[in-house]
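Figure 3 (text version): structure tokens given as input.
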């Protein structure tokens, strides 16, 4: 069964994977911690400003899809959440440490070059050089059941091609030679999930501004 994550679902899953690897002592995450992770200013693209209620709604949806599990510690009154999206006994998705780090970065930041991925994913897995990143990307792109990543056409002015994940659905790309000519007004291969993430981020920002203005207009009490 093909997995298709909405842009905000991908942000939640990416944050849970990231924190599981980088801060295991603080994992699983409370709603507050996960909201902060989703809205983090570093290593995120696009930057978001989600409320706890919005993140809770996303979690409820992911729990129903069996991608996230609510797990509270002994004596804790605060619900905590962990992903069961991949690398579990019941998940069809199994990744090596390097592959998981790459997938996580693609979920959090969108399409990136192998060089960018080596620099950014190094905090989650060790890469000796860019060739190891490229080997992991090739393995992800050539999986027998279904590919997890795809190489995008090289953009004008860029030396290296970027790679995108396919966990938000298939991506239509043009042949590299035709990409620049076919899309003169838009950078090549801006994937659908990136557009959705940008639109969702704009909606969230507008909603926050509306609530702020409403608070200024409505009398207190």
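Below: residues designed for each position.
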């Amino acid at each position: 069964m093909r997995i298709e994550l909405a842009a905000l679902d991908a942000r939640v899953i990416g944050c849970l994977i990231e924190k599981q690897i980088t801060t295991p002592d603080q994992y699983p995450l409370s709603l507050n911690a996960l909201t902060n992770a989703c809205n983090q200013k570093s290593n995120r693209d696009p930057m978001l400003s989600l409320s706890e209620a919005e993140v809770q709604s996303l979690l409820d949806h992911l729990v129903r899809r069996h991608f996230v599990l609510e797990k509270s510690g002994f004596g804790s009154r605060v619900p905590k959440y962990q992903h069961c999206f991949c690398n579990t006994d019941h998940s069809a998705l199994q990744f090596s440490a390097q592959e998981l780090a790459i997938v996580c970065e693609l979920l959090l930041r969108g399409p990136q070059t192998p060089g960018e991925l080596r620099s950014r994913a190094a905090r989650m897995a060790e890469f000796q050089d860019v060739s190891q990143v490229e080997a992991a990307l090739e393995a992800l792109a050539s999986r027998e059941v279904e590919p997890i990543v795809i190489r995008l056409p090289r953009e004008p002015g860029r030396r290296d091609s970027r790679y995108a994940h396919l966990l938000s659905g298939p991506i239509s790309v043009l042949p590299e030679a035709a990409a620049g000519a076919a899309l003169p007004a838009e950078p090549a291969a801006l994937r659908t999930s990136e557009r959705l993430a940008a639109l969702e981020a704009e909606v969230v920002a507008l909603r926050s501004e509306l609530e702020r203005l409403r608070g200024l207009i409505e009398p207190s009490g």
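The beta strands are 29-30, 68-70, 80-83, 149-151, 163-165.
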